[in-house]
Design a protein that fits this description.
By secondary structure, the protein is α+β, with helices and mostly antiparallel strands. It is built from four helices and four strands.
Length: 110
């Protein structure tokens, strides 16, 4: 694996690996020691705080370089309360020129 990574680093600027959950199997922890950095992904509403703490501890124990995190499946409505905004793109006429048309809608749900 080390040889493969060295070969890939010569050809590409960035290499991304999607691994299994770090708590479930040791593959992710072992792989993390060979990489320049790790981004930990958690699922909003499913990943418990304890599981997240355990994952971080496992990565720290093998001295991986944790560079950040991603929170998936977050419900935007819960962040902004009962209000939301949306944006869309629209194509005009035959010009085929893409213009961004910002539509802002403030909706209060009850």
């Amino acid at each position: 694996m080390k040889m493969l990574l060295e070969e890939l680093k010569e050809k590409y600027d960035m290499i991304l690996f999607d691994s299994p959950p770090v708590i479930a199997v040791t593959d992710a922890a072992v792989l993390s020691t060979l990489l320049d950095g790790v981004v930990l992904v958690a699922s909003s509403g499913s990943t418990s705080r304890e599981a997240l703490d355990r994952a971080i501890t496992l990565l720290e124990n093998v001295k991986s370089h944790l560079i950040g995190g991603v929170l998936n499946k977050i419900k935007v409505e819960s962040v902004y309360g009962s209000y939301h905004y949306y944006y869309y793109y629209h194509y005009y006429g035959g010009t085929k020129q893409k213009r961004k048309k910002r539509t802002e809608e403030l909706v209060k749900t009850t």
